[in-house]
Design goal:
The complex is a heterodimer of chains A (242) and B (244).
Chain A: E1 2-11, E2 14-24, E3 29-33, H1 40-47, E4 55-60, E5 63-64, H2 69-74, E6 76-79, H3 91-101, H4 106-119, H5 135-147, E7 153-157, H6 165-178, E8 183-188, H7 191-197, E9 200-205, E10 208-213, H8 215-221, H9 226-233
Parallel strand pairs in A: 3-8, 3-9, 6-7, 7-8
Antiparallel strand pairs in A: 1-2, 1-4, 4-5, 9-10
Helix pairs in contact in A: 3-4
Chain B: H1 2-17, H2 20-37, H3 42-45, H4 58-70, H5 75-80, H6 82-88, H7 93-113, H8 116-125, H9 130-157, H10 161-177, H11 181-190, H12 193-202, H13 205-212, H14 218-243
Helix pairs in contact in B: 1-7, 2-4, 2-7, 4-9, 4-10, 7-9, 7-14, 9-10, 9-13, 9-14, 13-14
The chains are: A alpha/beta (242), B mainly alpha (244).
Chain lengths: 242, 244
């Protein structure tokens, strides 16, 4: 479903993503771990077609993001890191607009909007203006827009960031549920989330994959602790530059 | 292009759910009427023609108001991060540019069209040449669209609306002043001839004045469409470059 081969991204002299390759198949939830600035968001932005890659290839359901970006984008639902929304709209009008942008119209549009409102528990704020929403609701509204076209591929950049423990639990449950039918790629730096929601995880550091496996395998590598492995394979901000 | 229509509708409704469009339209109407009846000497001229009493003021107002309409077009998208949402939806950058630009142009069209009572007035008072008046309106709208396109280009550079407003107003003011009669006369006393020529062709007056007088000249349409298209192409280039 998602096939990334030798993906590289340079910003001037800085290499943000360095020759990264991975695949996510249907029914798999891949956790993307790494310290801040490891290149997680940059990778996701390339996979979703927002940034062009410096080199490498991205295939979404067999469609190349480089050559047929518009078609490839129809297969993806994406939740950006900061959960950006148009503040002047109401929740339901925003979701309706995203549906229209995705070519869903009329009755199907109404159904799609009410389906995602139910899935993401937005009933109580559906008619509310987005700029009056709390952070949790904003996040869920953005998550709802990523599900509106029932995509085959779901890419979520820190989907639980800024949510309270109850909401975090709900979102993890939702990701796990959605992962049965779709290919899900989600980034986080909360290690507990990996065990709670992922079927596989990779750890990224300085734009490279430094560990890859199921949560159980990764735990084993870290002598029974994911935290231990994470500290071992990633570079700390405080570490001296070699 | 279906997505361009969806973007157009969203942008237009955003203008009218916020006070922006209302404020700009009302300010334009008040100022243009006040100028027409005071400095424009609408009644004292005693001529059923809108050239100097009414249309003359339009570029002076648009140089300040068109940037206010367009300042948020891309800077706001970049500040709030919604550009990432737009960039990952199955649409092209051109659909977004066209949709947004047309929405802003519609706000300007509404402002220009709502001055229609003055057109009714001159028709009641005398027998004006309505084709000339239409040509004046067309010229006025084209000036506004040109300023709007330039503002859109500036807004692609920055995420700060205030910076966008200041820079675009400066460019528009320059375009109005540099070909304005008194200014050109002063400049031609000292500046070299090529510079005066350049100022005249960069400014709006040469092209607007002929339309204001009811003369459709091909070179004016070429000038307006070239500037608008160049600004839109520039916007697309800047937005693409900022992502890579």
């Amino acid at each position: 479903m998602i096939e990334v081969k030798n993906l590289t991204k340079r910003f001037g002299p800085k290499v943000a993503v360095d020759n990264l390759s991975f695949t996510v198949t249907k029914g798999e939830v891949l956790g993307f771990l790494g310290p801040n600035g490891a290149g997680k968001s940059t990778t996701m932005r390339m996979v979703t077609g927002f940034f062009p890659a410096t080199s490498g290839d991205i295939q979404i359901c067999g469609i190349s993001m480089r050559d047929q970006a518009e078609e490839a984008k129809t297969k993806i639902g994406y939740l950006p890191e900061s959960a950006p929304l148009y503040n002047d709209m109401t929740v339901s009008s925003f979701l309706g607009w995203v549906a229209e942008m995705r070519g869903i119209k009329g009755k199907a549009k109404k159904e799609a909007v009410s389906r995602v409102i139910d899935t993401c528990f937005l009933q109580s704020v559906a008619k509310q203006a987005i700029d009056t929403l709390s952070k949790g609701y904003r996040h869920r509204t953005c998550l709802a827009q990523s599900l509106i076209h029932d995509p085959e591929v779901l890419i979520l950049d820190e989907p639980t960031d800024g949510l309270d423990p109850n909401q975090k639990h709900e979102v993890r449950r939702l990701i796990k549920e959605l992962g049965k039918e779709k290919a899900v790629l989600f980034s986080t730096h909360i290690l507990e989330e990996v065990e709670a929601a992922c079927s596989r995880a990779v750890i990224v550091d300085r734009g490279r994959i430094v560990a890859d496996g199921t949560p159980a395998e990764l735990k084993e590598k870290g002598d029974g602790s994911l935290h231990e492995l994470f500290r071992k394979v990633t570079t700390r901000d405080t570490a001296k530059v070699a | 292009m279906k997505t361009a229509l969806a973007i157009y509708k969203r942008e237009l409704s955003a203008y009218f759910t916020r006070p922006t469009a209302y404020a700009i339209i009302i300010i334009f109407l008040i100022l243009v009427m006040a100028l027409t009846f005071t400095f424009g000497r609408f009644f004292r001229i005693g001529d059923a023609n809108l050239e100097y009493s009414f249309f003359f003021w339009h570029p002076w107002l648009f140089m300040l108001l068109a940037p206010a309409v367009g300042m948020g077009l891309w800077s706001d998208e970049q500040r709030t991060g919604t550009i990432e949402l737009l960039g990952t939806l199955p649409t092209t950058i051109w659909s977004a540019i066209v949709g947004k630009y047309l929405a802003a142009a519609t706000v300007c069209l509404a402002a220009v069209a709502l001055t229609f009572p003055i057109w009714i007035t001159v028709n009641r008072l005398g027998e004006p040449d309505n084709l000339t008046i239409f040509s004046g309106y067309l010229g006025s709208f084209l000036v506004c669209c040109t300023f709007l396109a330039l503002t859109m280009l500036v807004s692609a550079f920055t995420r700060d609306q205030v910076v966008c407003l200041i820079v675009s107003v400066a460019i528009c003011v320059l375009m109005v002043l540099c070909s304005y009669g008194d200014f050109v006369i002063e400049a031609s006393k000292n500046a070299p001839r090529w510079l005066v020529e350049a100022m005249l062709s960069f400014g709006v007056w040469d092209h607007f004045r002929s339309l204001m007088r009811g003369a459709f000249r091909l070179q004016d349409f070429v000038w307006f469409t070239t500037l608008i298209m160049a600004s839109l192409i520039g916007t697309s280039a800047i937005l693409s470059a900022r992502r890579s």
